[in-house]
Amino acid sequence: MTKYFMHDTHLAGLEAEMMLAPFFTHRTSGVMILSRFHYDKKSTNCKDCLSYHKGCTEAACPWLAERLEAGAVSYRELLKICFENLRSKRMKARLRHLSSRCGWFYDSAHKSRFQLAQAALGVNLSSMPPTYAAALFLLTADQQLWQCAEKGATCHSFQFGQIKLRNSSAEAYALYQTAKSLYTGVERITISELADPEVIDDALFATIVGGILIAKFGTDVFKIKKSEVCS
Q: Looking at the domain assignment, is residue 33 inside a domain?
């Protein structure tokens, strides 16, 4: 039911005028100004939070998304949040060692492939769904893997049924299975495999964990600077 009683009558216009706030004037033209505010480290200082009293009093940071946007979260903190329920002692030990490693990408060629893939697919880093971004990040870590995987990639999804691995290395297979696990939600690589340095070497482990963090927290994780990754 409409709020106007005179709807569809010749008095409808007059009634609409009478419903306006006093001294209201119509906007005839103009430009709508949208908020251009962006979070930065100063505006996300933990000590200014109402939940801070000689330290954070919350079990989980209520402003994590805003702090991520500002690049004000450390790599060590992300690992702690992401794997807080982890029970594997071997995996925990490996993650502690990982927190001193640098960089997000497997190598410089990985970063280049990741960027070129975005351009080819017509996708933007900031607008990618987390699981899509994680899959793209992992699948572009290996050149031969991406040559196979790009056939099943579109600007909005990955069709893993169309991806046929041929003569792939053990590293490429691990990247593929992790990407598929994160994207589909079906586990195809185990914690015990990830915790074993003889199965997954250190560089590959760092890249896979990077994909897991992207899937959980989104592409704002890339705003963590290299010096902070090493902290």
A: no
